[in-house]
Amino acid sequence: MDIESGYEQIPFWRDYVRHHARDDYWEALSIRDKYHAFTMPSLLIGGWYDYYPKETFRNYLAIVEHASSAELARRHKVIIGPWGHGFSGSSEFGDLDFGEQSVPDAIGLYCEWFDATLKDGAAGSSPTGSQWVPEAPIRIFVMGANTWRDEYEWPLARTEYVKYYLHSNGAANSPGVLSTEIPADEPPDNYTYDPLDPVPTLGGNHSVGLFWEAARDVIRPGPFDQRPIEQRDDVLVYTTEPLDEDTEITGPVTLKLYAASSAPDTDFVAKLTDVYPDGRSINITEGVIRARFREMDWENPTLIVPHTIYEYTIDLQVTSNVFKQGHCIRVDVTSSNFPLWDRNPNTGHKPGMDAELRPADQTIYHDRQHPSHIILPIIPV
Fold it and tell me: Of 292, 284, 364, which is closest to residue 316 (Cα–Cα)?
């Protein structure tokens, strides 16, 4: 596709496509067996709208676990803010303004870190006086509340994991309902995913850098109103009643989805959004699962049997957001998010090896035997 798209041959892209499952090619690039080699304190910085906030915490937890001493483990730090792949230098990101307090003093932060690490000084001892580096190991920006908070573990020990179930009368575009009530006998929802007409990317978690202007014209990272996406017939929408009180969600978000497809392989995509009283549906975090990897066996993918119900676990990464009183929590379910994620051609063929595309009829179940639900990490007040 590199040449067909009017460009020259791209060797590293072709390598990626050839190695569509985890093998020695990817193992050679991995650091997951090298965490013990981190012998200096590390400062990990990420953004809730980057593609890697979960990996940032995974790496932090692993280097702490493999630290050679308790002192070294204590000096590892992680900071996650309301950004994409790098500091933007502005409080405005996508359709939201997170306030001036969200904009880091990058020079002050780096000076503090190097003072504390190389000069063995205390965090906050930089002459800039910015005090950006926390004494606590973790600093997160809580969106919605738009404030910074220091924490001492991840996930937070006080988290209450609450299941919100998908409900509808068989027409989730009406829309459907999201609630803590366990479903009884409910008809499933159906839609057709056509890779020739995929759901377009609108904001979200991207690793597009701040200076990739050409890419930013196509993929805009961050929070955007999802209503243009949610009006499509191939997007299912499930929404809570307006909240009686502020509700903080901080930590890993997971969707358990019971679904069937007419195809031997397909994708299922989920998005968590914050619905404002004026109707705006602002994306918070998102995830995707390719059916052949449903068992989380990245080395040995297996196709599905068409029209058979499977349980899918969709990892929506991690986030921190306060859904304010009067807002609603929403989950969108579909099968594409292009061009952020490559389209699944629904053929079952080896990815990237041919140009055949087929539509797939998708069925989403939410009944007593197949209680599709999202697991939200709620932080008690």
Answer: 284
Residues 6 or more apart whose Cβ sits within 8 Å of residue 34: none
Q: Residue 351 — pLDDT band, cuts 50, 70, 90?
A: confident
| Nearest CA among 212, 344, 337 for reference residue 283 | 337
Q: Which two tokens stand for residue 22?
A: 């985890």
- Residue position matching structure tokens 């595309």: 357
d(CA 95, CA 97): 7
Task: Note the pLDDT of residue 120.
Answer: 63
Euclidean distance between CA atoms 258 and 77, whole angstroms: 38
Domain range 31-151, CATH architecture: 3-Layer(aba) Sandwich (3.40)
CA 317 to the chain's CA centroid: 4
Half-sphere exposure of residue 354, counting CA atoms within 13 Å on the CB side?
Answer: 9
More confident residue, 36 or 127: 36
Backbone phi, then psi, for 56, in 5-degree steps?
A: -60, -45
Residue with tokens 């606590």: 136
Residues of the chain with CATH 3.40.50.1820: 31-151
Q: Give the domain 160-379 fold.
A: Jelly Rolls (2.60.120)
Length of the chain: 381
Helices and strands counted in the chain (H then E): 7, 17
Q: pLDDT tens digits, residue range 97-123?
A: 999 999 988 888 888 888 888 886 555
Every domain range in the chain assigned CATH 2.60.120.260:
160-379
Q: What is the DSSP letter of 65?
A: H
Whether this model's pTM surpasses 0.85: yes
Q: Which pLDDT tens digit goes with each residue over 73-103? A: 999 999 999 999 888 788 999 999 999 999 9
The single residue listed with the structure tokens 């061009």 is 339
Q: List the Cα angle 318/321/322 in 5-degree steps.
A: 150
| The pLDDT of residue 50 | 94
